Amino acid sequence: MRRAGCSFAIAATEDENSQRGFAVLYSRQAVHMHRRQDYASVLSRGSLLTTTRRDLLTAAVTAAAGAAASATLAQGNPAGDAHEHEHDHDHQDVPGDPALRVKALESILVAKGLVDPAALDALVDTYENKIGPRNGAKVVARAWTDPEYKKRLLTDATAAIAELGYRGLEGDQMVVVENTPQVHNLVVCTLCSCYPWPVLGLPPVWYKSSAYRARSVIDPRRVLRDFGWALPDEVEVRVWDSTAELRYLVLPERPAGTDHLTEAELAALVTRDAMVGVRQVPASRSERSS
Fold first, then answer.
1. Residue range of the domain that includes 270
2. What tens digit of pLDDT does each residue of 211-253 get?
3. Is 188 found in the same domain as 266?
4. How far apart are CA 249 and CA 228, in angstroms?
5. pTM higher than 0.90
6. Catalytic residues
7. Does one domain contain both 158 and 234?
């Protein structure tokens, strides 16, 4: 059976005053360049990994409406005339930083009424503060401290996660797989970038790269070594392929020496990468930030 492809569209339609709505489209075209990069090179480029979600969503806006902005610019100079006149003032070159170019396009879209800054801020806030790895970390911490909740989580992950208020788009069918001293789990999406947004937020660049998607299936131990984690040979590695219908979340092993920590303190240790299965959960916050 063929798996359905995945797409992402977040839209705010016209309000009751008939004001223009906006749409943010997260398409394959918007991330095509990143997917062609080897995930190891992506990991070595800290600037990509530290890109904020606002940068990502703003870039998605400009990708979706770039054509409209280009048309607007063309109308301002329909003949495409060069800037030729006598003057004694200096020109300032436009910086090459993609973030500045994105900001320039965003400004044009806002000026033309194609994008509502308040709606964009609300969208970013949702994924930054309400949907993201911190939600998944709370699920993991609850499972570590509540044996009954852990049973429910491993039996019916969708319902157990919903108990904490996390549900919705891209998370309506969830499965949680538990790491143990004998079994290690790794999550991938070989088709594209299917990912459990309600508990992990938006997928990182390396998760979407073709190299990670292919090598996680072919040689998962090598992938883990590339992330700095060498598993003992006796540990079985299981790879779980997320689809448009089903998303996976790894329940990492609880670090040794954390029995004294509260549920909130444990949640602060859990990382996105640990819930994908490419890293261990650190035993302290200092290790987490290092």
1. 132-289
2. 999 999 999 999 999 999 999 999 999 999 999 889 999 999 9
3. yes
4. 20
5. no
6. 189, 192-194
7. yes
